[in-house]
Amino acid sequence: MAAHKLCMIPGPIEFHEDVLQAMATPATSHVAPNFIPALGESIELLRQILFTSGQPFIIAGSGTLGWDMTACNLIEAGEDVLVCNSGYFGDRFGECMETYGAKVTHLRVPIGESPQLAAVAAALKSKKYKAITITHVDTSTGVLSDIKGIADIVRKESPETLVVVDGVCSVGSEEIRMDAWGIDVVVTASQKALGAPPGLCVMGVSTRAIEVFKTRKTPVANYYANWNRWLPIMNAYEARKPSYFATPAVQNVYALHVSLKQIVAQGVEKRFALHKEASLKAKKFIHDLGLKLVPTSLEHAANGMSAVYYPEGVAATDLLPKLAAHGIVAAGGLHVEIAPKYFRIGHMGISVTEPERGHLDATLNALKISLAECGYKGAL
Amino acid sequence: MAAHKLCMIPGPIEFHEDVLQAMATPATSHVAPNFIPALGESIELLRQILFTSGQPFIIAGSGTLGWDMTACNLIEAGEDVLVCNSGYFGDRFGECMETYGAKVTHLRVPIGESPQLAAVAAALKSKKYKAITITHVDTSTGVLSDIKGIADIVRKESPETLVVVDGVCSVGSEEIRMDAWGIDVVVTASQKALGAPPGLCVMGVSTRAIEVFKTRKTPVANYYANWNRWLPIMNAYEARKPSYFATPAVQNVYALHVSLKQIVAQGVEKRFALHKEASLKAKKFIHDLGLKLVPTSLEHAANGMSAVYYPEGVAATDLLPKLAAHGIVAAGGLHVEIAPKYFRIGHMGISVTEPERGHLDATLNALKISLAECGYKGAL
């Protein structure tokens, strides 16, 4: 195998050695006494990380599956959903909602902006929404949405509206307090700031949302994603009892378990602070190089990643291969309207919680050198 | 970690060391030049293993997700589906079909029997079915269905009916020739005879079924499982180009890739023969002990597993812990009507293709000793 390049994209991120070792756990039955506690305890640890007394789910699949889980279990055909749309992932979550019969209204913001609280309040006044979705960090733009502020407004203007957060690129790097802030659903995945390899859809669902689910009038129009099948399974594993609906991704769960234990052991608050610190460092470096972030203000820029416009005269086809030659894997643009104009760097997980690894410094230094190699004057 | 017990259940199975090492591949972008060929080549290898020129899919999720993929993409609401039901998994696949609006007719057989060709022919004469589903090996009973025979009858009686095989517990251990036999869909998962850890839904879909999909009249009522989203992704990876819909389970794909290469290198025909040989050995040993298989005849008993009734006076609570104490993990019963009366042993993958590992011998010896410890006279 070629030498490992640092994976500094906004997920998958670099994994701790103990997490990788858990991925190589020998064959283990999904109902074995040495597997059940790994899944059971992971459910408990997620409650601590999401600050909720609600119901976590850990299911084999990508983060995208969490959108289906939200839509098919909580929305009934014909119900209205308000999508706070700050980029690519807002569009997609909206499409997923429509697949299950939701009538979707998009509250779009210009690229680089985050949803305005006044606009959310106005939208909530105009119509009764079953749910509002917010992309906490839109991985396509690095924009951070104010989920606490939006949840406050929902509770004031339309208390029954479910607050759904797409936290795929935020859980583990951005502050989320489900119960205190009144958030009903958080969708995420294993491979971003939760620090494990991809392959698991991870969710937190409030007790209130579970009640809404239990009183739905129409059947759930999905088999694999149906909470009626998964609730007894999650409850059984948490009670340390074997149970079966579909075979869990045993090794991935072992790996997630190791990472969740590390996160809670270091302290969730400490983790938020370290991500903020690393992000400020990255963004100052980027600013000092004369580069411009996609988010229009630091106030609504994500702490786990940076989306950065190429400077004049530098193209994607130039910069990314040069970064790779210096051992750093960064990502290109994803937002369709500006994709060729910007790149993205992830700074999550062990790359920032264990700064002694030097991942971020190596990345920023490689960025400067690569820009200089591209002939960018600001880096000389 | 405690000493590893041999995982001799009907999946997950024991993994090759190289497969496990691939699970511990360091963080790699899902669009990295060193990942794309692993997924692309896995798609090509699956064509060889399934003997098809059709379209394989490799998606993060459990095998169960493959049922949703089949139902939501190929069946439209109101269409009739015939389920050849040889146990637990027939019931479940039927429920999944109904979730997507299918009108399901179950062709049930008594426990331990396989579907009769004459009954299938009669059912096909009575109604026009969009699809027929067959559980190739019902993991709950160890019954092997004659998918070649059934496909022949379908092609004769109702040529447009899609032949859907639940091959979760058969792909890699039982002979399947999709194109030659006229099979349209094979659903499987990574953790059985394909020899990789759980976490991937794996499918093969015939060119004919893809055409049926492309001409469907109603939209696909699922977002994550929608082939419209996955077909371009599978095509892109096979063409060695990056593409994105949902993040693949990178490490699991690396592991599957290693295992698929091993399977093709050893030869698929050879693999079938080795599974048959191991199965005969296991079943003769079981017979000589005076135990009875759940399948009523060797003719329709699976080659990758054995479902065995406990002898008089021996209970699940006695035998399984004793086997575990001897280092062998076996599985209890799963078919609701007889669950406490039988147990299941898997003999798939490296445990039979590399007999020098001694897995099967160790399992059978432990079975004999454990039965004797339970006071079973036939084992003394």
UniProtKB/TrEMBL annotation, chains A, B:
Its EC number is 2.6.1.44. Signal peptide: none annotated. The keyword Transferase applies. Keywords: Aminotransferase, Pyridoxal phosphate, Transferase. The keyword Transferase applies. One of its GO terms (cellular component) is peroxisome. The modification N6-(pyridoxal phosphate)lysine is found at K192. Its cofactor is pyridoxal 5'-phosphate. Residues 62-337 form the Aminotransferase class V domain. One of its GO terms (molecular function) is alanine-glyoxylate transaminase activity. Substrate binds at R344. It is an enzyme of class 2 (transferase). Belongs to the class-V pyridoxal-phosphate-dependent aminotransferase family. This is alanine--glyoxylate transaminase. It comes from Podila minutissima.
